[in-house]
Amino acid sequence: MKMSDKIKNRREELGLTLQEVGEYIGVSKATVQRYESGEIKNLKLVIIERLTQVLKINPGYLMGWESEENNKEKGINTIAAHFEGNDFSEGDKADIERFIKFVLSKK
Question: From CA 40, how far away is CA 4, in angstroms rounded?
């Protein structure tokens, strides 16, 4: 999947508008649309960083260096890391992933 598709798909998953993403990263909604269409391909590092923050994804996934599964696993492990000293089983991680999906569906 191309970076442009990842940006658009994730924005839509989160229920964000072009305007909201643009305001967060400091560009116009038209510029965000150009990122999503692939018209702008070479994004500055600061834009990539802000996109990953607002879209809640790993830079490696956005850049195509990591798979979507790695992105999900890192997100789950990041949440799990907030419970220091607790090791989570695969079942626990699956529960966390379901909860994340539930929360995102309510946005």
Answer: 9
